[in-house]
Design goal:
By secondary structure, the protein is mainly alpha-helical. The protein contains 1 helix and no strands.
């Protein structure tokens, strides 16, 4: 997102992001130990659970549509 679509971001951006992630992990580790770090990882992953559930629903809906479409194609008379 911050690299404007480039596959290789500038070294400064890599350094800033690496420092941000490392600092966040270090602060959580020192303030609450490993348990705080694990809780933060779970809390950060929670929104992706909702997205994955929506994707599963959409996939099921698409597969059901394809099944019904194929069944209707086989049963319809050809001209």
């Amino acid at each position: 997102m911050t690299s404007g679509g480039l596959e290789t971001p500038s070294p400064l951006k890599e350094l800033v992001w690496g420092g941000t992630v490392s600092t966040t992990a270090a602060v959580l580790l020192f303030s609450g130990g490993l348990e705080a770090l694990q809780r933060m990882a779970i809390a950060a992953a929670l929104p992706f659970t909702a997205i994955m559930l929506l994707m599963c629903y959409s996939l099921l809906k698409g597969v059901r549509y394809e099944f019904l479409y194929e069944r209707d194609e086989k049963n319809s008379p050809r001209n």
